[in-house]
């Protein structure tokens, strides 16, 4: 406990008085010289420099860490990936949900919408914005494609 008090005392007063005077005061107060010298050594140790993290490009399939884009190519690849999964995920979810919620069509659509919006929010806010931009762009195109398929189905 005394060593902590010595360190705190030296920290508070080292800018106001020279260390030899502070040491003399502590010795006069009855603190052991060994503890005072040890506290002075602790205070005189250099503070280690904090290194800045390097901007290392993340691997493409690394979705755990926030992506730091270093080139336009990375942005473009994420955008294309988001566009493709923006088309594929609703179709795959629709097929899967037909097996689970077949008689409950409204719940199937609601679940698809919630899942899709959750993915967009996850990528946009948390991890990789350009994937969500591709997914957002694929929504109207996927909708138009679905209407074309429906029209084609009714015409035949």
Strand content: under 5%
Outline the biggest β-sheet.
none
Q: Would you report the number of β strands?
A: 0
SSE pattern: HHHHHH
Mean pLDDT: 77
Give the count of structural domains: 2
Helix fraction, binned, reads over 70%
- Spatial extent as radius of gyration: 32 Å
How widely separated are the two ends? Answer: 89 Å
The secondary-structure class comes to mainly alpha
Shape: rod-shaped
* Parts with pLDDT < 50 across at least 5 consecutive residues: none
Number of helices: 6
Quick structural gist:
The chain is an all-alpha fold. The chain has six helices and no strands.
Structure description:
- The chain is mainly α and 156 residues long.
- It has two domains: 2-44; 72-155, no CATH class.
- It is built from six helices and no strands.
- The chain has helices at residues 2-13, 19-29, 33-44, 72-100, 105-126, 129-155.
- The longest helix has 29 residues, at 72-100.
- The chain starts with a helix and ends with a helix.
- The model has no long low-confidence stretch (mean pLDDT 77).
